[in-house]
Amino acid sequence: MEAQPLTALPAVLALELPPGQSPSTMTFSRDQADALAGLVAEDLHALLPGIGQARLALAGALFDPVELLRPGFPVWATLDELARRIPRGHLQNVVAFGSHQGQMPAQTLVPESEHAGGALRLLPLSLLAPEAVAEALAGRMEVELVGRGEAGTRTADWLMRTLGVPLEHARYFSRNDLLALICVQYEHVNLAPLWTLLEAAMLTPYQGESTLSARGLPLRYAEGRVHAGSPAAWLAQQAGDAAERAHAIAGLVFELRQYAALLHAHRLPFALERGEAGEGWLLETLAAPDPALAPPGLVAHEAPGLGTIALTAVQAGRDGQPRLLAHGYPLAPQALGPLVAVLAARLGIEPSLHALGRVVLDAGGLSAPLPVRH
After folding, report:
1. At what angle do helices 153-163 and 30-47 cross, to 10 degrees?
2. 43, burial (CB in 10 Å: exposed 0-12, middle 13-18, buried 19+)
3. What's the pLDDT score for residue 90?
4. For the stretch 287-300, what's the b/e string if a residue is b when 16 or more beta carbons lie within 10 angstroms of its beta carbon?
5. Which of 154, 149, 151, 170 is nearest to 23 (CA)?
């Protein structure tokens, strides 16, 4: 008789650490993962009657939310794939994956060091249930875990001893609960539009989604990436005097830097609607250089506390006015040098940058003084 297909019901054990505390390890050995899985199974049997028909799979690693909440949910996908390879009934239908000689069974199950400092650490779980019981079990998970999903005393004590840190909380969440929790956190820091796009990328990747950033920049999710509208076009629509508009574009670039950092953490590419993007930068091309004119130059627009917020490639026009060729926006600290190099190579000039010490604007938006020639 053919085995009934199994439906994966993803969940986490969420550990909230006190401020400034870090666990002694981000991964558990095979023996540790097996011991923890046994304790988790006890907890879940008490919370979810009838769970015995499902297989519990546990990854012995602690992740930041951004590592789990990525398009395709790669950590859970790997956990499910590994669990499905093991014959049903093996080890009382509880299976755990830990490290052996310092190596996890898949690279996807290795937490990234760049995200190791967060106070919320998540241990991925999955219940693999026959289709006949999966829907009812999923419904119980959504009700019971969010309502009374505290980890048992034995589980919490084991975790504190093994990790060498106290725990503020240890509780179980379904993946839907986790999505709702992180949504609230993003809304609290004025990043609700970003979450709208992230949620679309994770839950309905085949559908487009459009929104506006908190400052009104058009944003769109489509075909596996987030597309931002033109910062220059956005600036051209802003009212106010030069100081107010300079403050506005600095604020927009700060917002874009937040978005770029979080999109990178969630592994969702960031692009420009009508332009191009590189590793940590966006670039709008306005015109090709005129070879009959003097060579172009690069200038840096600077804002207090933010450093260089934009680069402008400029050429002296025949009328003696600046002829703007491109605007570039460095969105990560290490992106300024590569962005200068890209523009210089494209324009056929030396990669030198004239720092303005301020944001230079004209009636249409970002502008620049004429290139200085020595």
Report:
1. 160
2. buried
3. 45
4. eebeeeeeebbbbb
5. 170
Q: Which two tokens stand for residue 236?
A: 């051209």
CA atoms within 13 A on the CB side of 125: 29
- Which secondary-structure segment (H or E) carries 12? strand 6-16
Query: How far apart are the C-alpha atoms of 310 and 299, rounded to whole Å?
Result: 8
With 0.85 as the threshold, say if the pTM is over it: yes
Of the candidates 213, 332, 221, the one whose C-alpha atom is nearest the C-alpha of residue 273 is 221
What angle (nearest 5°) sits at the alpha carbon of residue 199, between those of residues 310 and 16?
A: 95
Separation CA 359–CA 348 (nearest Å): 25
Closest C-alpha among 325, 310, 322, 324 to residue 356: 310
* pLDDT exceeds cutoff 80 at 103: yes
What is d(CA 219, CA 259) in angstroms, rounded to the nearest whole number?
Answer: 11
CA nearest to 283, candidates 328, 253, 250, 233: 328
What tokens appear for 68 in the block?
């789990």
Q: 317-336 burial, b if ≥16 CB within 10 A, otherwise e?
A: eeeeebbbbbbbbbbeeebb
Detail the DSSP E strand segments found in 253-364.
Answer: 270-272, 276-278, 281-285, 297-303, 307-316, 322-330, 354-355, 361-362
**Tokens 């899985």 belong to which residue?**
37
Q: Is 151's pLDDT higher than 90?
A: yes
